[in-house]
Every structure is written in C-alpha cells, then in structure tokens.
Amino acid sequence: MRGGGNMNNMMKQMQKMQKKMMAAQDELHEMTFEATAGGGMVKVTANGKKEITDVEINEEVVDPDDVEMLQDLILAATNDVMKQVEDTTNEKMGQFTKGMNIPGF
C-alpha cells in the first residue's frame, strides 16, 4: 500500500502542472505581437494563437510599378511577427517540458 500514496501525490502534482500550463496558454493566447518592415511602412499584428489579426500598409509604400517590394515587406513583417509568437510560446510553455523528451516542444 505504500506505493498508493506516491501515486496520489504524483497525480496531484500533474494536475497542478496541467492547471499552470492551461493558465500560461490562456495568457499566451491573450497576447498581441507586432512587427514592422520598411521602417514602419508595413505593420503586421498577430495574437498568441498564431493568427494574423491586422495588416497596416502606409500608402507611401504602395507603388504599382514595384509590387514585389511591397510583397517582400509584408512577408518580412509577417515572418518576424510569427517568430515572435513562436519564441514567446517556446519560452512560456518550455518551462513545463524541460527535461522531458516530448516531440513538438
């Protein structure tokens, strides 16, 4: 019967960790991230769910003869904001997977 107490304690610890993980994930989902390109000419906003929520383009950068530059600026800002979300996700959620060999974390 001695092992039963350890199992109960371990289950309680896992439940505590799960609650903390859910709270961290909720906090992350509420966060907003912004990235700019072209000296602020293009701004992309995303949330912690890895969803793009806004794209702002300064009209000065809109040149019908150079659409490729605008596309590049949008890509740069989008990639930057998604990296911010990914880095923050890894930072916040990584504390729960340290020392564990879990694929995807």
UniProtKB/TrEMBL annotation:
Compartment list: Cytoplasm, Nucleoid
Q: Which GO terms describe its molecular function?
A: DNA binding
* Primary location recorded for the protein, binned into one broad class: cytoplasm
The reply on keyword DNA repair is no
Among Pfam families, the record links this protein to: YbaB_DNA_bd (PF02575)
- Domain of life the protein comes from: Bacteria
Q: Which InterPro entries match?
A: YbaB-like_sf, YbaB/EbfC
Q: Which residues form a coiled coil?
A: 7-34
Keywords, ordered alphabetically: Coiled coil, Cytoplasm, DNA-binding
Assembly and interactions?
A: Homodimer.
NCBIfam families associated with the record = DNA_YbaB_EbfC
By sequence similarity, the record places it as follows:
Belongs to the YbaB/EbfC family.
Role: Binds to DNA and alters its conformation. May be involved in regulation of gene expression, nucleoid organization and DNA protection.
What is this protein's name?
Answer: Nucleoid-associated protein FPQ13_12780
Report the source organism: Allobacillus salarius
